[in-house]
Amino acid sequence: MTGTLTGLLDDLVAADAGAPVALDRVGAGFRPVTRTELRAHADAVRALLAAAGVGPGDCVGVWLPNWSDALAWQVAASGLGAHVMGLNTRYNVEEVAHVLRRAAPRVLAVAAGFHDLDLVDRLRRAVAEVDGAAPLVVPVAGPDGADPDPAPFDVGGGTALVDREACAPPAGRDGSDLAVAFSTSGSTGLPKLAAHRERAVVEHGIADARRLGIGPGDVVTLVLPLSGVFGFSTALATIAGGGTCLLEPVFDPPVVLAAMAEHRATHLVGGDDMVSRLVDAWTIEPADLTSLRWVGLADFMGRVEEIARWAAAEFGALTTGVYGSSEVFALATSWPDDVPAPRRWTGGGTPVSAAIRVRVADPETGAPLPDGEQGELLFAGPTVVDEYLGSPEAAASAFTADGWFRTGDLAVRHPDGAIEYVCRMGDVLRLSGFLVAPAEIELRLAAHPAVVTAKVVGARSPDGAPQAVGFVVLDGGVDATATPQELREWCASALARFKVPSRIEIIDAMPTTSGTNGTKIRAAELREWAQKGVPG
Predict the structure, then answer these.
(1) Which stretches does DSSP call E strand in 176-218?
(2) What element of type H or E holds 16?
(3) What's the whole-number mean pLDDT along residues 195-224?
(4) How would you classify the pairing of strands 419-424 and 348-351?
(5) Which residues contact 402 (CB under 8 A, 6 or more apart)?
(6) pLDDT tens track for 43-62
(7) Which residues of 439-464 are buried (b: 16+ CB within 10 A; e: fewer)?
(8) Cα dihedral angle (471, 475, 480, 486), rounded to 10 degrees?
(9) Where are any strands of DSSP class E within 208-298?
(10) pLDDT digit string (tens) for 306-319?
(11) In terms of Cα–Cα distance, which of 304, 344, 292 is closest to 320?
(12) What is the rounded distance in angstroms from the CA atom of residue 471 to the CA atom of residue 457?
């Protein structure tokens, strides 16, 4: 099999041209997109890009929701040696301007009339903030719309429409060009744009398909945006395995559950924030998800175990924790099916490919640590970021002297080669001289019958001593009966004394931020709250 997306799609067409590669939502139903139709769509987009002068090294922006159009644009751009920078439809003007500065897309596909969003207005304001040429804008109506009038989409670089009758063959690339870039989390400053080569994209998709057990006839639910690394990696695994992408452009839990039941979804990947909303909706109105057999979860809200027990009890589905990032691909590690719970539910797992190497190192010296010790998680291999668009200097601090990528995550490597994610390096607590993962305390708090969500952060007392402060959301809110003192005693009954939070605050809701890969609790904001009143 060739190391290009065009070659991967051609192989699928040769195997079964009429098999569905995607299901596009159209109104209340779905329209199947066959492998042949996706290839023809990609050929038509490629003709437009070639006519616009797009070639090796150029960037193509794709500002689309979860439509099969996004897949066609990816295959088309890669066939010319260009790379795609996906934009989330939630991006504001500043975020779009940042992409324009760093990635400098020559052509930008923009969703027309999606969800009443005026994306072109945001784009026009972003272009006004950026020096340099405006992109050629291609309005895309999506699976259920007619071609729009392109004139209102001109932001200074002209407009064009995809001619579905046009066709341009790929340029015969070998997979060594950059193919796709993802925005990093941007926890400090503006996010970086992590780009990867095409061969790595294809090989990782094949490895993920093998680990997830995706094959012809399987249907994988795709709710996370294709512009983000988790949505993209899941889609590529589905395609590489010969499965079908169930594309949901809007996350409406009851609607998604109905679609999963109707189309006999077999796989689901997401953060526990998103999947927990599906669980809550299912509890109110159950749907037949007995076809579901594999769930991959990233732990953002501490609800993985709850979801895993639900999936196993109701449908016999296997749940695994996963690990990934914009720089090393999503689903870089996960747990093989034969790993028993609850270990299988933790974030981490074994690399999905032998080409992916991991080690744990001393955060200060960079020296490798023996198995079983906590340290910074490092990656090496083809899935590691190849370039930061518009910021070549960013790689200097991202790699060790011997070429390993520094994730900024605290982890433990085990003798069997598996890694167990602990937390972000910036979140780790040092209490009474010991390094403590907040998750250890959070899990104890979350086990209390009255607690819905718990988050623990570090702060300093007036004399400078580090302390842990817990924030909890109770079942029923601030009027629930559990008190901070009761919760501290609950922790003390199972944890070492120095791990018991010095203070616990009961709040109505956690401060969160919605990103491309899911909703995360804003730990930085909680740290600010904690610092305002930690007792001495």
Answers:
(1) 178-183, 193-197
(2) none
(3) 98
(4) antiparallel
(5) none
(6) 999 999 999 999 999 999 99
(7) bebbbbbbebebbbbbbbbbbeeeee
(8) -50
(9) 219-222, 244-247, 267-271, 294-298
(10) 999 999 999 999 99
(11) 344
(12) 8
Farthest CA pair distance, the chain:
72
Q: Which domains does the chain have, with CATH numbers?
A: 428-531 (3.30.300.30)
Q: Which two tokens stand for residue 445?
A: 């708090």
Hunting for tokens 């990782």 — which residue is that? Answer: 204
116 strand-pairing partners = none
Q: What is the 3-state secondary structure (H, E, C) of 308-374?
A: HHHHHHHHCCEEEEEEEECCCEEEEEECCCCCCCCHHHCCEEEECCCCCEEEEECCCCCCECCCCCE
DSSP string, 436-502: E-HHHHHHHHHTSTTEEEEEEEEEE-TTS-EEEEEEEEETTGGGSS--HHHHHHHHHTTS-GGGS-S
Q: How far is CA 349 from CA 110, 268, 303, 373, 414, in A?
A: 37, 17, 18, 16, 10
pLDDT tens for each residue of 250-298: 999 999 999 999 999 999 999 998 999 999 999 999 999 999 999 999 9
Q: Are 124 and 96 in contact (CB under 8 A)?
A: no
CA 301 – CA 276 distance, rounded (Å): 9
CA distance 484 to 497: 16
* Tokens encoding 189: 């400053």
What are the tokens at 453? 């969500």
C-alpha–C-alpha distance, residues 310 and 294, integer Å: 13
Q: What is the DSSP letter of 415?
A: T
Predicted pLDDT of residue 535:
45
Omega within 30 of 0 (cis) for the link into 484? no
What confidence score (pLDDT) does residue 116 get? 87
- What amino acid is encoded at 222 in this protein? L
Of all residues in the chain, the percent with pLDDT exceeding 90 is: 77
Three-class SS of residue 121? helix
Place of tokens 């839990």: 253
Beta bridge partners, 85, equal 61, 181
Q: Rounded to an integer, what distance in angstroms lies between the CA atom of residue 430 and that of residue 498?
A: 10
